[in-house]
Amino acid sequence: MASEPQPGPPAPLLVLDAVEAGYGRAAMVLRGLTIEVPPGTVVCLVGPNGAGKSTVLKVASGLLKPRSGRVLVDGQDVTGQGPQAMLASGLAHVLQGHSVFREMTVAENVLLGAYTLRDKARIAERAEFVRELFPIVGERWKQLAGLLSGGQQKQVEFARSLMVDPKVVLLDEPSMGLDPKTTATVFEQVVRMRDAGTAVLLVEQNARRALETADLGCVLDLGRVHISGPAPELLADPQLSELYLGGRPAEPSRPRDG
Ligand SMILES: Nc1ncnc2c1ncn2[C@@H]1O[C@H](COP(=O)(O)OP(=O)(O)OP(=O)(O)O)[C@@H](O)[C@H]1O
């Protein structure tokens, strides 16, 4: 009897396929770059300063048109479309730095993310979902966002980006300006997004910390993906550590004294 065909790996929600992109007349920054982000997966981009990590996010979010290659969101070809169309196709971009409006309440900030939604019941349902996913957002719902700490404000930005129930979230330096403890909290929230099924593409200066959270890593060099693989394997590779992660692999963590 013929055996049932086994289901293959889930189709990626974001695909950058042989993308070439650059700025004006300057030399190309991305030179045939291919990246896939499956559902419920965090992919982290690693590479030296100027390697093109932010440029990848700009192409993926529609801020920069690729000169060639394709961008697919959930199988749909969205190459060359602007940020609005990308959002409509299910892709949200959480920008570098802080983008909360400090003089507005947490609720107002989060609900801004729903401006493309028309159905009030749907908006209420999404608000409930993000308040549960990020409890601090629910607790501080009616307070001014400017009264929240940096890490809490980041969670407001995450909540805002999830209002449209995106299939793909692009995170540009989510820990920028945050202390180590707050950074840890923010990465815990990235895991929550991932566990909710979102495909996350992450760029982070602190590559080692980001790879500890990510499922897969892609090392960029000369405008292409130089090496890719499971994040723990990249972290354990002494040569990669030396070249891209600022030193040798960390010692396995030991319980702290006291
Ligand atoms: N708006 C722009 N106009 C012209 N060149 C740019 C622009 N933005 C980036 N570049 C150039 O593109 C290249 C890649 O920059 P990008 O910001 O993508 O790198 P990165 O890997 O994110 O770097 P970093 O780790 O320093 O943030 C660099 O040589 C940079 O000078």
UniProtKB/TrEMBL annotation:
Pfam families attached to this UniProt entry: ABC_tran
Keyword Nucleotide-binding listed? The answer is yes
ABC transporter domain mapped to chain residues? 13-247
Q: Is Transport set as a keyword in this record?
A: yes
Q: Name one GO molecular function term.
A: ATP binding
Keywords from the UniProt entry: Amino-acid transport, ATP-binding, Nucleotide-binding, Transport
InterPro entries reported for this sequence: AAA+_ATPase, ABC_transporter-like_ATP-bd, BCAA_Transport_ATP-bd_LivF, P-loop_NTPase
Which family does the entry's similarity section mention? Belongs to the ABC transporter superfamily.
Q: What is this protein called?
A: ABC transporter ATP-binding protein
Species the sequence originates in: Streptomyces johnsoniae
Q: What is the lineage of its organism?
A: Bacteria, Bacillati, Actinomycetota, Actinomycetes, Kitasatosporales
